[in-house]
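Example record

One chain of 304 residues, shown exactly as stored in the release files.
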Amino acid sequence: MTTEESVLRLDDGRQIVIWHSRPQSEAPLRGTVLLAPGFCGRMYSLAATAAYLCANGFAVYRYDPLDHRGPSSGELADFTMSTGRFSMDQVLDWLARERGVESLGVIATSLSARIAYRVASERAKIRYLVTAVGVTDLRATLTRVFGVDHMASPPAELPPTVVFEDRHHIRTLGFATDAHERGWNPAATTRVELDRATLPIVAFIARDDDWVLEREVEEALDLANHPERRMCKLEGSGHNLAKNPRIAQAMLRELTGAVMALENCTSGEVQRAALPPSFPALEREPTFEMLTTQVIAERRRSTR
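Predicted structure tokens for this chain:
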């Protein structure tokens, strides 16, 4: 695949950096997909996902949100859920305005999945959504991550910062205030948002995930009443799928197959139709050497 960089410049002077990867083949594109990284992830952490999708005929856009890790504007300490939502909206608007991409699929990981659920429930041009270890109950997940329910604390009693993965400091007051005022916390809100969403959704979960529980995702998706949704369970992995190469490869294969199936079933008007019983086999699969080369090149590019 080939990758080019664009910069979305906002009216307030901030910028969002976007990567566009496309297949080497001259064959017609199968579709267009936007990838949203998980919290503290970066665009290059999605290199393998982009490579699998490009190998099977998709154009792929990726971005680093504002107030996040990566080359976009802002500091990670100031990140809030609404900042993440604003970033996703800005990128979707830019794709429609500058690239003529008005209808596309979205793939979101971990915390960005919670954002994508809300965005997809409000934007008709998102054709389908795929999530990986996606958060549906923000407050419950954060309590498991930090071992304390900070959302229950009065503002005056919040610690100035919390530390994520032993090295990333997040200012608690701004994050908590935004989560309360914008309704990001309650699991019931996710369910309400998804109840009004009409697009197909495939949610990948890890059976041994200590942060995102299977029952939470199941309740949010309401599978019994939505035949156009599916939950796919990955055995032998926790929240960080990349820690197990075998699971990571299986995930990439299944995710790419899911996107191929979703693209096929939404090629016309989006309808509430059941997904096929199984996802199609991949037409092409990147080699380990190709993936390694791509990841190294993108990491160097991101940190230049």
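Notes: Residues 161 and 210 are 22 Å apart (CA to CA).
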